[in-house]
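Go through this chain.

——
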Amino acid sequence: MSGDLEGANVLITGGTGSLGQTLVRRLLLGDLGQPERVIVFSRDEAKQYAMKTTWKHAYAATDDIIYNNFDEVIEFWIGDVRDQNSVEAAVVNADVVFHAAAMKQVPTCEYFPAEATATNVLGAANLARAVRGSDRTHTLIGVSTDKACKPINVMGMTKALQERILVEANLPLESGGCRMACVRYGNVVSSRGSVIPLFRRQIANGGPVTITLPEMTRFLLSLDRAVDTIFAAYREARPGEIFVPHCPAARIPDIAAAMIGERDIEIVETGIRPGEKIHEILVSEEEAPRTTERAGHYVIESVLPELQLEDAPRPLSGEYSSADAVVQGQDLLDLVAQADFVDPAAGDVPVGT
């Protein structure tokens, strides 16, 4: 297990996303030591440009995303996890990889399942192959989702396969090489596509606020809490494990009502969307017997017996569902208040200022 990232080269796939940007900020703050280089890997040059100019506080027209790019602590790398050559070129100088690139919008994945498979499944396989072929990369942490647990939608199915690909890639253990593990968590309250930014826009426009079903619940956590889970897995995970945070959950109508407050804004029920669950699960009933606790997280051991290394107390007697962890009142208001991410690509106030 690795302790810190002092002097390391860190590659973040999907590094221009909301999670990726928060991860970059936390790395540069030195939460795990000061890395030598942070490589932001994504296929969207516009988001890379916006992110770089934001971090440099440069708001005039500039081409300096290219000028001196490879001599700076934050290095921007255009590439696509679907392309094996692109992935290998980025991985070659990376000590550690945080894999956050994904197609994650549930309805979009339902209408474009082949595209979701290409990114979430084949992209993970490309990355696993690249790091296994690297003499340098010692750790890969993949970012998964509660929708991978008992999946009913394409996004969850592809993320479940991503998990299994990264777990299996640890074998054979005797060959050494890169340690691969995953994190799995619920909805990040301030990420792109989260319900809270949507509700904020609807409220700012005077409503209505749209919900799907009144009984629907979701796990919620802040971007920083998501990064805490990634860092815990980096510090503590053994090959093939999945780290799961202890998460609060909320009913969607309660979130809407908390955000509306005393304003006269209508809440409209629109019905469930393609591929949605009523409740989400972070640890299934089948996974509970091989789930332990470490570093303040549930830790799911691999389904593969070769990677089941720990004989420890099992804290869960059944599945870990969002229906069983509902918060209300001030606890919910405090949770909603953590949704403070702004997107520089959309012209908002810079991240980290």
